[in-house]
Amino acid sequence: MVKLTYNLGGGLPDPSIFPKKISDIHFEPEISFQELDKELLKILNYRGINAKNEELLLTTGSIQGIYIFSYSFIDPGDKIAIEYPTFAGAIKVFKARNPDLVKLPVIPYYNIEVKEKIKAMYVIPTGQNPTGINMKLEDKKRLLELAEEKDFIILEDDAYGLLTPEQPTLKSMDKNGRVVYITTLSKVFSSGIRLGIMVADKEINETFRKVKENIDGGNSTLSLSLLFESLKDGSFWEGLTRAKRIYNEKKSIMCEALNRYLPQAEWNYPEGGLFYFIKIKGINSEQLLTKVKDKVIFSPGSKFFFDGYGKEYLRLSFSYSSPEEIEKGIEIISKEIQ
Ligand SMILES: Cc1ncc(COP(=O)(O)O)c(C=O)c1O
């Protein structure tokens, strides 16, 4: 088998943005959880959120936060609105609860309407995965009004928000405790560290904490120590600044490569996030992946639509691969479909 060279598949961060090599970081067996909480509140502040300690929960990756939310709020048959398309990992978690999934259309842009009686809604309003759309401020306001009017709870997944801090979070605008917030450190610090930060009103958070205790009995102290150290010495924030610069450069490089090699593709320049979600009429991206996967990988579009639609779409990630790899990868895809 030919060695896989170009990985345009997952949303893996560029290893060079990491603040330090893991081995360089001094492991502190004793960390001050009070101090760690203070540092976490600063991260949330960066996203405009003024949380209290009792509203905070550190999860093992943000996917665990989505699981905790689903386990706590969703019963079989409940109507849950999710973006169409949305993060494939979340679709799997929700489906495991057997809900009745309702579409919130995102392409070409959000259609903020809630016609059915829903119990909850899952949204990625900043750098939406896979489309890269940012929800406009007036639509965020409208969504919060709808949640109040129609009495549903919102799970805001802010996985890419730290990269575009100028975009306000729903949570920062939430006056009535309608929003449960989750973000991840996977995109800006390390995905292997498996840490996510969840914020919910005190009562809800108490339920979440119990659910988490039953799942894993708490986070890895090694992970917590690494994060703590990096927040204290500032390398977390330096890494974030680096990440924004590097991702912006690579986003432009992928844009040029798409224009050069795949002029027939339809896409919008991603306002946030780490992906291009492109449509090529007449193709089947699952079959295409089978043909090229020893040389280049990408995510076929159907993974992001809960009903299997989306075969003409490809999600291409610009976060992990080098500029040369991005260009070569797209060239290979273009040759295969000609
Ligand atoms: C929108 C979204 N939420 C959550 C995650 C998962 O993050 P974590 O690694 O913290 O579980 C991802 C990862 O791709 C994502 O795109």
From TrEMBL:
- Give the UniProt record's GO annotations in the biological process aspect: alpha-amino acid metabolic process
Q: Which InterPro entries match?
A: Aminotransferase_I/II_large (IPR004839), Class-I_PLP-dep_aminotransf (IPR050859), PyrdxlP-dep_Trfase (IPR015424), PyrdxlP-dep_Trfase_major (IPR015421), PyrdxlP-dep_Trfase_small (IPR015422)
Which Pfam families does its entry note? Aminotran_1_2
Keywords from the UniProt entry: Aminotransferase, Pyridoxal phosphate, Transferase
List residues of the Aminotransferase class I/classII large domain: 31-333
Q: Which sequence ranges form a coiled-coil region, renumbered to this chain?
A: none
Q: Which GO terms describe its molecular function?
A: pyridoxal phosphate binding; transaminase activity
Cofactors required:
pyridoxal 5'-phosphate
Span of the signal peptide: none
* Source superkingdom: Archaea
Name listed for the protein in its UniProt record? Aminotransferase class I/classII large domain-containing protein
Q: Which organism is it from?
A: Acidianus brierleyi
